[in-house]
Amino acid sequence: MSSHREAPEIAKDPVADGTDVYAFVSPSSPTQAVLIANFIPLQKPDGGPNFYEFGDDVLYEIHVSNKGKAEADITYQFRFHTRVRNAKTFLYNTGQIMHIDDTTWNRPQYYSVTRIKNGTAKVLGKNLPCPPVNVGKRSTPDYATLSNEAKHALPGGRMVFAGQRADAFHVDLGSVFDLGALRPFNEAHLISMPNMNGVNSVQSYNVHTIALQVPIKELTRNGVAPSDPMDPKAVVGVWATASRRASRIFDYDSGSYVGHGPWKQVSRLGNPLFNEVIVPMAEKDQWNVRQPKGDSRYTKYVNKPELQGLLPVLYPGVFPNLAAYDKPRADLNAVLMTGIPGGVIPGFQNYTGPVQADMLRLNLAIPPASSPNKLGLVGGDPAGFPNGRRIDDDVVTIELRAIAGLTIPVVDPSYTPDGAASAVEDGTSNTNAGATDEFPYLGLPGGGYQTEPGTTQAS
Question: Per the record, which residues fall in region Disordered (predicted)?
Answer without folding.
Answer: 419-459
